[in-house]
Amino acid sequence: MGGKKWRWGVILDAGSSGTRLHIYRWKDPRKALKNASPEDLRSLPKLMTEKKWTKKIRPGVSTFGDRVEDVGPEHLQSLIDHALSVIPADKVHDTPIFLMATAGMRLLPLTQQTALTSEICAYLQRNTRFSLPDCNLHVQVIKGETEGLYGWIASNYLLGGFDHPDQHQHGKGHHTYGFLDMGGASAQIAFAPNTTEAEKHWNDLKLLRLRTLDGNPKEYKVFTTTWLGFGVNQARESYVKNLEDRYADTSFELPDPCLPKGLRTTLEGNIIDRRKTRATSLVGTGHFEECLQLTYPLLGKDKPCEDNPCLINGQHVPAIDFDVNHFIGVSEYWHTTHGVFGGKGDQAYDFATYQKRVKGFCGRDWNTIRDGIPSGKEFDTKLAQEACFKAAWLINVLHEGIGVPRIGFHEGLSKVNVSKSALEAAKNKGFADPFKPVDKIDGIEVSWTLGKMVLYAAGQIPPASGNDRYPVGFGSNTVDVGTPPDFQFAGSSWEPLRYYGNQTNSTIDADDDDWDLDAEDILDRAKSHSTTGFFAFILILIFFLWFFRKRDRRMRVYSRVNSILRRHPRGRPGKGSAARGGLSGLASKLFRHRSSSGPAYERVMEEGDADRFELSSASDREQDDAHDYSDSSDGLTSPRSGLGISRIGLSSGLATPVEQHNPYHHALLSPTSSALGRGGLVVRTDSRERLTIPPHLALAGVGRRSRAASPTRLKSPSMSPLMEA
């Protein structure tokens, strides 16, 4: 089955406004290695997803802080059901599931965070079969720095900065892209500083280690930080509070330059009618320049900087060299520039064009704006209501806070339009602009969740020889070689999967058709053993055919057997096992040419002993064959074998009692096979006939005809050569 080669991963992004399910799929590294090109070997695993594999529900997990017992059935279950509708049922047990909460949960008290994560993990373990071996690893509130690092991985993975560094040279040996993210409660930045800054601030960087398909490590030194409370929703709350303080006790109507002219809302942002309320309200004035001025103080640029240089809120950030550090912005950076203010197509961002559009929109009367919104589009109404504040906040964060040059405004900076083919620009020559808002690349949403899953998939790749001391993950940049003390591992394992009945670990599909084992040399050895066993079987078969090729030889052997059997016409053994009698005794006589003792043969004649041979029907054998063997063409897969090596290659050519299912063994002379068990019954029937024939007639061959006509005897494949005419 083609589906056996795929690995799956599920991750739940538990944000402040809702929880979004993401499902990713990638080819198992051991399968990908089979036909990998040299370029593939130097690349990371190729992950894919589809739009229909995602689902978002509202509100966020953090809203269940006071009723944690409801988070499972009321919130998570619908996402779980959607995941199960996508992932094949036989893959669920081997699919990791992660729930990682971000800024919304970070704002909760620690006791509520702990209670929620514990309940979420317990619910997933009780009600799903997903792989979730470690609650602390799979269900957690991640730091903003970690979220930013995952976003940095996702961005460079999709843009090609990892796999094709030669095509993304930005100068000074730099080939990676910076990452900017802004949500409702926080904002993140992650980038690799230039060489000078990296050496100067080495202890501020994170050591990130990935692994390419050939098993070799890739290391990067990345700076990442977060600004909690600087997402658009939290910033808006701080802004409104400042307005209250500014106009305290002077009026119930607070003029708000960040709202379109004439729009009236509550302090919480709900649209109201002036005639129906006397509560304090915000009244839009539509003065965007004033909006920029009033949002600027929220950056905290006046906060003391204890470790220079600093950007926002007094937090240290190494100096950004925009000649080589080209940033992409996701989430609000995309929605705020391409939502209400977006032009036709995928417009490149430049400050002059964007600010002109924002001013034109925000200066319009609210009634005019509202009339242009289709009826029933409450979501679009909300976007239009918030657009002016978000635009002002984004401009201040980008250009006043982070320092992104204002392309299209300052002289001496090139204005390059990459709007027609942002993908080609990114993959072939890199972005020419210092900042580019993006949403999707190659049809895949740029989300930090992708970075987490890239890290997990890379951890499934077996390390090349001698490279197992370089695990996949990230930690402090405190060591040159090896693993930092605070290293966070990818959470995946490259150990091969082995089957123990129905129990498996979570690394490889052992039921697939051609899995290798711990290393390539084991695979070669298994193939060698399989080939040797096959040739041994052929040689044995040829020997039997040669030995019984002539009728006179068969008859001589047959006569000798008859003479041996005739010497013990009345042997009555005890109630011992029949395992040493029957055809095993007959086979011994055929090959040794001498009589040993005969009780083994006479035990088969005992009434009631015949049922001790386990006779299986044809349908039983077909069922067993289907259970024990896969559709492998090279015979490497067998669930009972443990290591997955073919029984054909490991056996000597004669089946053991638990290995009766191999069709190659059915033609062999074996006391335990079902066909030969039937042969044992034939011997008993013939012997009874002989008991009634006098010795002198038996010597003359009397009674042979009845044996030849016995339909039971003809069913034995081991006896048919003897009776060939």
UniProtKB/TrEMBL annotation:
Pfam families: GDA1_CD39. The keyword DNA repair does not apply. The keyword Hydrolase applies. Residues 612-630 have a biased composition (Basic and acidic residues). Residues 612-641, 702-725 are annotated as: Disordered. The chain crosses the membrane at residues 531-548. Keywords: Hydrolase, Membrane, Transmembrane, Transmembrane helix. Belongs to the GDA1/CD39 NTPase family. This is Golgi apyrase. It comes from Humicola insolens.
